[in-house]
Amino acid sequence: MASPVKLYQQEMHRNLGFFATWLPSTAVELGDIGVLEGGRFRRVGSLKELGISQLDVREGTPENVSYSASAKRSDGISAGAGTVVPIASAELSIQFSSQGGYVFEALAMRQMEIADRLALAAGLLQAYEKGQWQKEWLLVDALYNAESATILVSEDTTSEIVLKASAAVLPVGSLPLADPRLKLAVASSSGKIVHIVATNNLRPLYSCVRVRDPLLFGKPSVVPVRGRTDQTANALGRPGIEDLLDS
Amino acid sequence: MQAYFSHSYRDVPINTYFSELFATAGITLRADQKTDVWCTAKLERYLFEMDGFVSIIPRRIAADESITYSPYIARELMLARRSRGPRILFVDGQLLTQFQSQFPPWAVPFFHDEPGTERVRHVKAIDDFRRTLGRGISRPLRQYVPKRATVFGGNEPVLRDAANHVAAILRSEDYTPAVRYAASMDEAFDDIDVFESMLDSEVCVFVLGKDLSYSDLYLAMAHAHCVPSVRLRHDPAATSSDPELSGVVRWTSAGDLKPQFLKVFQNYLSAFEHPAGEGDLQRLATPTAGGDEWNPADGPGLVAHIRPENSYVSDRVTGVLRGLESQESNRTYSDQVCRELYDRIKKDRFYYTFEPAMSQPVVQRIRPPNEIDALNCGTCLDFACMFASLLEAAHERPVVVVTRSGRGAHAVTGYLAPDAVTWDEPPTLGDLRGALRRGEVMLFETTGAVEVRGRTVAAETETERKEGGDMLDYRTAKNAAARLLLENDIELQHFIDVRQLRDRSET
Fold this sequence. Notes:
The complex is a heterodimer. By secondary structure, chain A is α+β, with helices and mostly antiparallel strands. Chain A contains 5 helices and 15 strands. In chain A, β13 and β14 (228-229) form a beta hairpin. Chain B has 3 domains: 2-140, Rossmann fold (3-Layer(aba) Sandwich); 145-269, Rossmann fold; 286-506, C8orf32 fold (Roll), CATH 3.10.620. In chain B, α2 packs across α3. Classes of the chains: A alpha+beta, B alpha/beta. Chain A binds chain B through residues 13-18, 60, 111, 113, 116-118, 141-142, 207, 209, 212, 217, 225-228, 230, 232-233, 236-238, 240-241, and chain B through 326-329, 395, 397, 416, 418-425, 427-438, 499.
């Protein structure tokens, strides 16, 4: 049976197509080089350390994101995107009914990615041919940065966490769990829950690429496309969720 | 009481509105299943075998965005007027105003967006029509001998041979044909036996030459009396074998006479359908034949239905690329190519139709692009494969995505960005969602480029369809496809990277 962390990562990958950082507070940067181990990205270096020049970064528009599974809020309504829950007090409890149950809420989450993947591929191929690149290495080519996020993952089949807001004024309606102005803090908990509450500048999601093994896929061949070679199509590959879950 | 229902197949909501009014009035409508064969003889036959004629003429938007209407419906109306039987005509109000001289004075208008606005008037018109049918004030039923046919041939040897060939084919279909020729104009005008033979025949076949002849006089008589007639005209220079609007079928040689004749004759023999509601009207609008088979379980097999070399595809792509400045491969250029192709297809004004029922449920038929062009309609999968063909011909990297959800199976198309990093294994739904977020895959709702009236197809909203004039603009089509992939109950059935599959099959 899959571990709670794997269940959370599997769900978040299905939702958004990115790998969920574990622990959620782990720092990940664009251009980080590393390997997948036990569901974590273990950093071994960076593009800069490899001598590959800084590549331009493309940023997306900020969005608020909310996902959950097997989680019930204190008034009996499941926590989920779009659910309006009247606030009776400054506390709310979230009960988890299975391992891997989770709540993921992020404010102003913005995608950041390496803009020129063709230049990236060229740089990595060069490093590969020089013997500087290990075939099991991965490179972080895109990630999400959240201005503030709350991530709760239950590691037990039943667990509960009570959060208390200490802000002077509370909003009417659904309580945004990631809003730092509420000054949410853990009042109590039962069962094992990994919790990150209203933390700033989290990198909760990332994606990565690898250099394809030329023995399996042939020497990265070039495919002319309107006069420009398209090395990316053959040179780099994107690992699937099973690579993370089986690591 | 039953009446022939002359209508535009793609306008299911308008047809449904009127068919319900007729049903309430106790008038059964009979209509022809959409095929790629235009058979005048069949209509001429049923005009006398039914009590009346009902025509609904909605607007159609031409390539230059002007309002027009179907020439085929107009032709049916002309035949009905010539038969002098009871008839009723409803026309889009704006058409009636713009083309007043082309419609009879008894045409009744309707508002295309909400035909029910004038429901009271429509009900009264139908009531009057029903009373006319009920009083039996129709021309008498045509008297003829079933299975008797008269074949008229020209005097040249090739036409005589052809007439006898047609007679042999009719005999094989259990008809009793008589072959006639006219040697002079007097003979054509005065030979009463030939005239009576024509009127007594269930059907006549005219085998004519390229130039007018005395046999054309007989055709004129048959035309005036609305005698069901198949018109075969020998024309060695003909480039199309499809029946013309006038009903004429041009044949070039003795070899292609039989298939040309049989195509029309078999349509003549087929029965009319009786649509009992919106579902039947939708089914009528769906051509039954055509297309090549595809097993929905065989994702990679879809590549065989992506045809960049198809003539319709090359025509469209050549035109679009000619108008674009050649650039280096990048995301912006790929999107520009895709947008131009999308907007070009919108101008062809195809309409969306359902998949025809198959005798074998494990296969689906996919129409190639030139067949979509001929039939003017297609399914989501037809259009997905067509757009993939267009993108591949334009040197982009097309992908086709087949999904399944509560609303059923659906297909959308898009392309991989030039800098996309792909997967070593077929992607999961999560992988695809991530690629969409990174902009490495761009998808769009292909049915947004075709007309869909009165409903939605996939994840687009009714408002979006309405704002697009029953279609979707390119940006909205992209949004709709992205929305589809983000639905909670969506399952990814197939992700077809056309180039990758072709590369693999070559190695």
